[in-house]
Amino acid sequence: LRGQKAESPEAIMRARYTAVxxxxxxxxxxxxxxxxxxxxxxTDGWKEVLGLKEKDPISxxxxxxxxxxxxxxxxxxxxxxxxxxxxDVEFKIRCSSGKVLHEKSTFKKDAKWGYIYTGxxxxxxxxxx
Length: 129
Prior knowledge:
This protein is an alpha+beta fold and 129 residues long. It has helices spanning 9-21, 25-30, 39-49, 57-62, and strands spanning 76-85, 88-95, 99-110, 114-128. It is 28% helix and 35% strand. The chain has a 4-stranded antiparallel beta sheet with strand order 1-2-3-4, covered by helices on one side.
């Protein structure tokens, strides 16, 4: 975005993909809405997902030491917009692990960023490439 507001939900989703690729947890946290967590909590969550921060011991135990699908976002290799309609963006994020995140997410207007992710998705699923 280079200091500009996103002019569409697709533009903010493209910026968010770039943030995943370059591990910008602060941008990801700032451009999403979540009433249950403040920005610091969201940033810490993204740092964990992106491999910038170790998982807490409980999470490590619950995953039995294995990697969860979401951890595939630590190494992304491609992004595709499947479709856009109003405030919804359907997209695929390809990961080096061979996994693909296929999701349809909803965005809303925001004074600072232009648009932000509402935290709502019609669907989100992991597929094999």
